[in-house]
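Worked example

This section walks through a single chain of length 305. The input is the sequence exactly as stored; nothing has been trimmed or padded.
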Amino acid sequence: MKARYYLGRILLTIILTFCITGFIGVSNVKNAISDSTIYTDIVEKEDLPEKILETLQSDFEKEYNTTMIPAEVYMNVITADWIETAMKQNITAVTEIMTGANSLAFNPDYTALEKSISDYFYEYAESINYEPDEIFDEKLQETIDNAESKINSRIDAFYFQTLSENGIISKICTIYPYITYGMILLLALAIIIIVVLIMLDENGGWRRIYFPGTAFFCGGAIMAVPSAYLLLSGTIQNFSIKDPVVFTAITSLIESLTEKVLLNGVYLGGFGLAVIIICIAFNKKKSESAKTEDVIKTETKNSET
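Given that input, the structure is written out below as tokens.
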């Protein structure tokens, strides 16, 4: 009977451990989908707008040999502040789409860019006495579309556009409610198991919290140890991504999410360890008190005899 009793508590502790690790994992997935600040913080911290601005400058300078359009036509109106605003608004729009809060994607304001390109075309046409016609309009629109497409591609450092085109964004929209339900289910199951473990303890006292504390410690360690390894080993930085801006954005994102998992694991693991220490310390104190009482009773009995 005793063996079954302890085996049952051990099995419940194992289930609780996986509930805790599952909750950490699912909650971080939920944050990665819904929390736009994870991405906007990277935009600011890694100075992505300036990096993108330099890349665009190089792109348009290389195109000059084929388009004969100076890079300044584009770059005079595309600034680091404009790129940062566009990136943040796009990030917010995408996270709202994935969580079901919004169904419309954000489109950057290219009014100034379109005016700059149009002014250049008309000024050039006037300088060579060329009367704008249908071909002129088609070439103008093609140039505007190509410029906007290139800029959109560059400011999409987190590959949201690619994810959307591959249908991944729509799939995330579908499963997002279930992620929330999963978190609630894991939390509820963990609370029930903790209560059952406490109620099953026949000895009472501080020993009741020993097994729940063990589960918290093990669950936190399971998530913290691999996360620490990934961060310390430099594995994330070994990812093969050619574009330097995208490389910075993606590796920073993975590192940020891994750090959050690590911190959650450390917090819960530390909490579990503290519970175990408290349990052991108070049980030891209780045992010593019981021994002292037995000694006093024995001495009292002997003296009476």
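What to look for: Residues 99 and 173 are 6 Å apart (CA to CA).
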